[in-house]
Design a protein that fits this description.
Blueprint (H helix, E strand, L loop, with lengths): L3 H21 L22 H5 L62 E3 L5 E3 L4 H7 L1 H9 L5 E3 L6 E3 L33
Helix pairs in contact: 3-4
């Protein structure tokens, strides 16, 4: 009779021998790292594919900015403590490179209802993820591929919605807040009642 534990050990040992042998005896045209390229896994996807299924933006309480900021006002670009309502919401930079960042690094000084990219180009508020992408390129690519994103709906071609950055992250304080862990699931043998 074969011991199951020993059988698993021998499978792992055999796999290790095969891998080591293939690395030792390199066969031109094939290497173990080529396995990752089988199936042409994309490194990126077109933004248009993501925009087609973006979840709607949540309502912003302080938008449009031009409700308060007159476009003819001269903007003070000096980094400083802000007055009401910006002393509370959206709040100060916390855990988002606050030593080096200032509001006008992302918000447009001239066109108040738009964001500003590093190159000076303006983007609409509903395309703010382009601002995030400037510093968070790896996450942006993963987001477009659906790896770093919550996607709801149908995976098999039906209607779906892909969440965007601010649906999970506060742009002024992006790290997640500590959360109390949920209780573990009930084991099947401890279930009571008619199911």
């Amino acid at each position: 009779m074969i011991n199951i534990r020993n059988f698993s050990f021998f499978k792992i040992l055999l796999f290790g021998i095969i891998v080591m042998t293939s690395l030792f005896f390199y066969i031109p045209g094939f290497a173990i790292h080529d396995i990752a390229t089988i199936g042409n896994v994309p490194e990126d996807c077109p933004l248009e594919d993501v925009q087609a299924c973006l979840a709607p933006m949540k309502e912003l309480s302080l938008f449009p900015c031009t409700d308060c900021h007159d476009k003819d006002w001269e903007t003070d670009p000096t980094k400083r403590e802000l007055a009401e309502p910006h002393d509370e919401y959206p709040g100060k930079f916390l855990n988002h490179d606050s030593e080096n960042r200032w509001c006008l690094d992302c918000h447009s000084e001239k066109e108040r209802d738009k964001f500003r990219l590093i190159n000076g180009q303006h983007v609409e508020f509903n395309e703010y993820y382009k601002v995030c992408a400037q510093c968070h390129g790896k996450m942006y690519r993963q987001w477009k591929l659906g790896i770093h994103a919550k996607i709801t709906g149908h995976w098999d071609g039906g209607e779906k919605q892909q969440w965007h950055c601010t649906m999970c992250h506060d742009p002024h304080n992006p790290p997640f807040k500590p959360q109390k862990p949920a209780a573990p699931p009930v084991r099947p043998e401890n279930l009571r009642g008619d199911y």
